[in-house]
Amino acid sequence: MYIFDIKRALRRFRKSEQGTVTMETVIMLPFLFGLLVFSYEFFDMFRYKSVREKATYTVADMLSRETNVVDATYIDNTKLLFDTMTKNGSDNQIRTSVVRYHQYDPDNIDEFELRWSEVRGEGELLKLTTADVKEAHATFPKMTNGQDLIIVETRSVYDAHLPFGVAKDTPIKTQMFMSLRFGAQLCYVGVCTP
């Protein structure tokens, strides 16, 4: 008997079309506000990453067109350009490296050689080492024997605008590979000669 009363009450509730907009608004408003805040944070984080990817591409493209020897001032200015494009210079870090691919035909052995690597900015990015790149086949694109590859990597920290944001202190990393356009190699002062 008791079960039938519950079923009947649920059936009546389901068929009922009475209600007030105020009550429905009170129930749904927190959910809609939370969804709006989450959407804002999500799209702002996407914009933050997109701007950094475009700035990374610009720096890599600039280096790929360089025919002169690069020095510390040039690398400092790439960081300055990156900071200017992203409009956030305090916590950006940029690593610029040049890697050469070697393939030895008799033994079918191939490996990568680090030509030079420089880091600007404070953070966890360190200069690449020979051990980092020697057999980095899964990381680097396919290359021809003797080809140089410019690698520009950046790291920034996204800080949510709201104190209860989902993406508080999220690291944003970008990586861009670029082959040389006009020169045979991109030299750094004291490391290689043109």
UniProtKB/TrEMBL annotation:
Transmembrane intervals: 21-43
Q: Which UniProt keywords apply?
A: Membrane, Transmembrane, Transmembrane helix
Superkingdom of the organism of origin? Bacteria
Q: What name has this protein been given in UniProt?
A: TadE-like protein
In which organism is this protein found?
Roseovarius gaetbuli
Classification from the root reads:
Bacteria, Pseudomonadati, Pseudomonadota, Alphaproteobacteria, Rhodobacterales
